[in-house]
Amino acid sequence: MIGFGLRLAVSGGREAITRLVVIAAAVAVGAGLLLATFAGVNAVNAQLTRVASLYPDPSAGGSDADPLWWTSREDYFHGSLITRVDVAATGASSPTPVGIPRTPGEGEFYASPAMQRLLAATAPDQLGARYPGRDLGTIGDAALTSPDSLVVIIGGAADQVGKLPHAVRLTSTGDNTPALPETVVDLIMSVIVAGLLFPVLIFIGTATRLSAARREQRFAAMRLVGATPRQISVIAAIEAAAAALAGTALGFVLFFLFRGSLAAVPFTGDPFFPSDLSLGVLNVLLVAVGVPAGAAVAAAVSLHRVRVSPLGVTRRATPRAPRWYRLLPLLLGLAELAFFLVGPKPETSDGQAAVFLPGLLLVMTGLLLAGPLLTMAGARLMARRATRPATLIAARRLADNPKAGFRAISGIMLALFITSVATGVITSIVANRGPAVVGSIEAATLSVNANDSPPTVAGPVLAGLRPIRGVSSTTILRKNPVKYADALVACADIPAVYGRCEAGATVAAVASGFVPYRQTVESSRVWPAAPVSVDALPQLPVESVVVGTDGSADAIEKARTVLELTFPAYYVGANVPGDFESEFANTLRGWQQLANVTIIASLALAGCSLAVSVVGGLVERKRPFSLLRLSGAPVRVLRRVVALESAVPMLTVAVVAVGIGLLAAQLFLGAQMHYTLEPPGAEFYLVVGAGLAVCLAVIASTLPLLERITGPETARSE
Amino acid sequence: MTIAIEARDVTFSFGTTPALRGANLAVEAGEVLAIMGPSGSGKSTLLHCLAGILVPDSGEILIDGVRIDTMTEARRSSMRRDRFGFVFQFGQLVPELTAAENVALPLLLSGVRRSEALGKAYAWFERLGLAGMEDRRSGELSGGQAQRVALARGLVAGPDVLFADEPTGALDSLTGEQVMDLMVDAAGEQGTTVVLVTHEPRVAAYAGREVIVRDGRVNAPDRIPS
Predict the structure, then answer these.
(1) Helix or strand or coil: residue A527?
(2) Whose CA is closest to B100, among B71, B122, B130?
(3) Residues B94, A621 contacting (CB under 8 angstroms)
(4) What are phi and psi of A705, to 5 degrees?
């Protein structure tokens, strides 16, 4: 039966070959994207493993080698993260850090290629002065997150490095292999499978159903000579699987062809090394076997809805109308997400994923189940109010078989839902935790934690900062003798842009960097008085230093260099509010790019399904449509029927999917992060608009067929 | 007598195969004309040329003295919609629409309001013995019922001419006779000219006049209208 099915698949004339090629092309795109995503997850894992190598775990290893002192700190330059590692060997057998040939000694350092380029291109007082000493060479890829990583490994004396914050003693290096948490991988995989694989399978199913209707004579003849419906299903499934197999092979070719270009896209905020985009055996097997098998199942399932009898192929008579209970999963999913908005919330990331993942999956499933019901309700309403024949025909068709009408657009709904959730969450997190707005006072304010330095440090640091052009204020904040209380500053020293003291006060308690957590700088802010005399302040340790600048990169980086050289002992260097978060925001923006790629690919695939479905509808009704045209119905009426049957549900579904996606994002953000949803930016709407435009273009591409198959010859020849 | 439709020396070929070779025909207003002939003689092609569906390779087609073979497709479509009705052998009903909506379709296409169009459509169901079937779909109608719905659709807009191409070809003889009775009666009541293509003498007998098409030419009338 398999051989017979294969022979039929390839010997069915031009139409059969075209059908095979179209299915194979769609599967190739889907398989290629699936492979890219698997490789992407592996690449992120590889990146994270190398990131972890810069923050080693002292409990790992356990050899009796001389320990290596190690401490990692975060430094910044123009908003980019520089990872600074201070190391000191304590003996000949001390392990060597990953990525360099030997441990640098005091006054020596290794730098990553990107760091070396940056050092060469930047004035020393802005950057190079922070890492004095001899450049020993380049850090290898094994210690770099990405080709653009800024890393410097600096050698020091053991007694100095050992006193630095978070210093650890290592007896081995390079044996830390943390990976993405399993729940996170599950989440990513579920989203990918739903977002990419589902539209591919829907497309294959739709194409198979259409091709079954087109091959009705062949199937009917086979039934007439005794083939069972099961055998017919097997033949159709073999054809779909053969096309999917060819498509999958092409998908592998596409993946390896574009792997280099893909690696350069900073999906995680940093580009990958091409070798990071690797595929595991399980990944290869899943795609190579899973996609063709999925295609065969989709084809077999799709034929269940078509009756192939010895007298021809017909769709099953009037399908049952969808019932109200199809709404339940959607409502349950939304209710679950809403419950955690007001109820108890899981504390850990794994716990959050365990709660929200089922909620999101339930909403996704609910959308797919509720879709036909909503399509029917909308179509019935449209039919009742229709005054034009095209509207009436389209609405009646959708109301008659809403499942078929919705199936073609379900991929679009899923793609848009996933992207809306991702974009809603990402936009809101970036807005709440992103870098300071360029031009704002925050973006021009640099501060450093002085780690309770002795009072005597104040004079030299002020002397170093004040001559820098562009520095407008320098303020020393002192350690509050009250534990955990805000830092202290003389009221006379508070620059006007950061607020003022309450009336009568001489010393105020102020927030770190003059900016309370998650707030902005306010000149009208009134800082509370502190019960400390102005005279006592100079004797208190220096808690932090705040430098106001004109916002220029030169001023900020020169001031940062002075602060870092003065206060080398804290694990985060001098920073502008948002320097921390900008890295995280970059990562999220990278994921946003991935979401954008997914949506355009999914929408294109869904558009193909829709087009196949449109063609199926036209083929089914070519005679009545043709006779309508003979009777004088303008072809534009028929075009309008096609547009209303496909474009209107598609656009309606797009609005519903985006709306529910943003609602789910709001429920997640509100419950877990206490953020309010930030409306997505213009880019999101542009991407959605572009994706929908692609779908509309695909639908429009079927219109010439409409004119061709409803010409007078159809009425004559049939 | 007024000539409603006239074909003058019409030729038409499908590729290199000639279907009409200088056909001449005149149809008087209000008459029922049967075009007969064997399979492949060109009778359906002649009907399609008369109805402005096909444009002759040469010759003229005149409706009420106005040439339609020189009109644009848009004008001919508009004329077919507003002045002609059509009944074909099978498969004419839009499957998604109810019987009443199918009948109302030509009126809706001409811009008539939906309630008014449906009102006029409903009136035809009683007249054609289809009362109670207004809300059925084409799949729920027998062949004869579907053909009567198609007849109602062809006549609902009160066309000047009804073109019927083998209207009983898919029906048994009894049902076919019922449909022909209804067609001739209803057209007569409205004063609609009927051009009927058939190869069945029994069906042609309903016409006031018959012409025979052979090898793409129209033979002289065999029978003078009574």
Answers:
(1) strand
(2) B122
(3) yes
(4) -65, -40
SS3 label, residue A515: coil
Our CA angle for A537, A539, A544, nearest 5°, is 65
Which of A26, A75, A20 has the alpha carbon at shortest distance from A576?
Answer: A75
Nearest-Cα residue of chain B relative to residue A384:
B114
3-state secondary structure chain B: CCEEEEEEEEEEEECCEEEEEEEEEEEECCCEEEEECCCCCCHHHHHHHHCCCCCCCEEEEEECCEECCCCCHHHHHHHHHHHEEEECCCCCCCCCCEHHHHHHHHHHHCCCCHHHHHHHHHHHHHHCCCCCCCCCEHHHCCHHHHHHHHHHHHHCCCCCEEEEECCCCCCCHHHHHHHHHHHHHHHHHHCCEEEEECCCHHHHCCCCEEEEEECCEECCCCCCCC
Domain B3-218 falls in which CATH fold? Rossmann fold (3.40.50)
- DSSP line for A654-686: HHHHHHHHHHHHHHHHHHHH-PPPPPP-HHHHH
Please give the Cα distance from A518 to A511 (Å, whole number).
11
Subunit contact A632:B84, Cβ cutoff 8 A: yes
| pLDDT exceeds cutoff 90 at B27 | yes
Are A237 and A299 in contact by the 8 Å Cβ rule? The answer is yes
* Residue pLDDT, tens place only, A491-550: 888 998 888 898 888 899 898 888 877 677 888 888 988 888 888 888 888 888 888 888
Report phi then psi at A451, rounded to 5.
60, 40
Q: Could you count the other beta carbons within 10 Å of the beta carbon of residue A18?
A: 11
Whether pLDDT at A313 is above 90: no
Q: B185 and B169 in contact (C-beta within 8 Å)?
A: no
pLDDT average, residue stretch A585-602: 69
Cβ contact, residue pair B91, A627, below 8 Å: yes
Q: B18: distance to nearest CA of chain A, Å?
A: 16
User: B58-63 and B3-14 as β-strands: parallel, antiparallel, unpaired?
Assistant: antiparallel
CA atoms in the 13 A half-sphere facing the CB of B115: 1
B53, B82, B105: residue with CB nearest A712: B53
Tell me how crowded residue A63 is: count the other CB atoms within 10 A of its CB: 11
In angstroms, what CA-CA distances link A322 with A371, A372, A376?
A: 9, 7, 8
d(CA B16, CA A552): 82
d(CA A20, CA A625): 28
Vertex A714 angle, CA A711 and A716, to 5°: 115
> Which pTM does this prediction carry?
0.66
ipTM surpassing 0.90, yes or no? no
Strands A526-527 and A500-501: parallel
The beta-carbon neighbor of B97 closest among A317, A318, A392 is A392
The residue among A558, A701, A659, A549 whose CA lies nearest residue A123 is A558
Contact A631 B85 (CB under 8 A): yes
DSSP secondary structure string, A184-214? HHHHHHHHHIIIIIHHHHHHHHHHHHHHHHH
Q: CB-based contact (8 Å) between A388 and chain B?
A: yes
> What's the whole-number mean pLDDT along residues B138-145?
85
Please tell me the distance from the alpha carbon of residue A30 to that of residue A198, in angstroms, as a whole number. 9
CB B219 within 8 A of CB B184: no
Residues near A125 by beta carbon (within 8 Å), at least 6 away in sequence = A558, A561
- A212/A347: higher pLDDT: A347
Q: How far apart are CA A461 and CA A477, in angstroms?
A: 13
Give the distance from residue B161's alpha carbon to the nearest chain A alpha carbon, in angstroms. Answer: 12
- How close A403 gets to chain B, by Cα (Å)? 15
- Dihedral of CA A325/A398/A385/A644: which sign? positive
Mean pLDDT, range B74-89, rounded to an integer: 87
For residue B108, the chain A residues in CB contact (below 8 A) are: 387-389, 392
